[in-house]
What does this fold into?
Amino acid sequence: MDNQALSIVDKRTQSAYEIPIHDGTIRAMDLRQIKTGPDDFGLMTYDPAFMNTASCKSAITFIDGDKGILRYRGYPIEQLAEKCSFLEVAYLVLFGELPNEAQLKEWVGQVTHHTMLHETTKKFLEGFRYDAHPMGMLISTVAALSTVYPDARHVLDPESRKLQILRLVGKMPTIAAYTYRHSLGLPYVYPDNDLSYTENFMNMLWKMTEPKYQANPILARALDILFILHADHEQNCSANVMRSTGSSQADPFVATAAAAAALSGPLHGGANEEVLKMLDEIGSKDKVPAYIDQVKAGHMKLMGFGHRIYKNYDPRARIIKWAADRVFEVTGRNRRLDIALELERIALEDEYFIKRKLYPNVDFYSGIIYQAMGFKPEIFTVLFAIPRTAGWLAQWQEMLEDPEQKIARPRQVYTGHAVREFVPLEKRSVPAAPTAA
Ligand code: CMC
It folds into this structure.
């Protein structure tokens, strides 16, 4: 349409420009023509933390943050969580369509046959200190898989990519379970191919001396739902790292390790662990108002609250709350849930949170369920990384197949010194000591 354009007048030169608008965006490169003279580099946009910049076109995940909507490949998250298994959703996220029966059988069979780790990788894991954080172990071990599978470097070969996807989706739960067993000093449990993806994960975590591990079906289903909810979340911090690392054509093992490293931070996937610490610090329901006052005074953040995109209730948090009730029927009610519900109640009525549109996010309730199921807080982010691997790989694959994508390389606004005369060592004066603020 002709009127899909932005008219710009550069007041520096009085020149006028027509910048086309497509999909509600202008192309940043179209601004480069706006110059004050032939030597001018051209206009750039300045957008720290990508607050208003689309870095790609994507057909994987849709979020409407104002309405609290999340869809994978067009399907509402609520329907997928209710009706699908995690591997079915992983297939959808990765390949664009829900699998039919034959496709699902083949996919599940292939993933299942890639769950084993090379024995040298197991030995690698044994080398970590007894108290190593599971997330650090996971990140390092996923990166180390790059040495086991040098063929993964053929990132432009679709067949090779498919194989690495199977390896990563298959092996993530195995690595995750090994990191957990290591921290408890327990022997490793090999994958059991008779079991579903989630049941097998539970088997590798919790099997002791019994000949065959029997997962509680309610807990296994709850974990599967949690995996579905965490499968992808469009251009979040770790997905952006996955794309950025993958854009240099680094192999998917090191790129996934980089994405997992981004996930580990407390502002991203590490938040669920922080929520548990916060609930323990608060201790009881009656201390909630005082804690909220401290948050409002700027002393700390309410962990598990707020989101860059959601300015409404995170739809995943609503489903997790529902799943929590099923889990507590098996495990018994957790006192932390009462503190969390009280925090949510007070925060949602408080002007500070209303004004800033701060609602519970996915991490607010997930840790409480995980802990009720028997997980230690240190492994919560690892539980996030297992399903998110499907999302990272979908983002990676989409990036590699997009003819518009190139090596990611942002611009900067240089604020340092202009050119300076070099000062030889003997002539450099001692800089003044910084004064205390
Ligand atoms: N508690 C108290 N105040 C908050 C919080 C919070 N959790 N989150 C944001 N604010 C305030 C913030 O101080 C700012 O106030 P002001 O305008 O007075 O300066 C305002 O709300 C806007 O916040 P922001 O930091 O500009 O928002 P952002 O989009 O940059 O940050 C966030 C998003 C998720 C990093 C942030 O909300 C946060 O740190 N939340 C706590 C950590 C958390 O739960 N992270 C998990 C995110 S969801 C899952 C995932 O991504 O892995």
Summary: The longest helix spans residues 158-184. The longest strand covers residues 5-10.
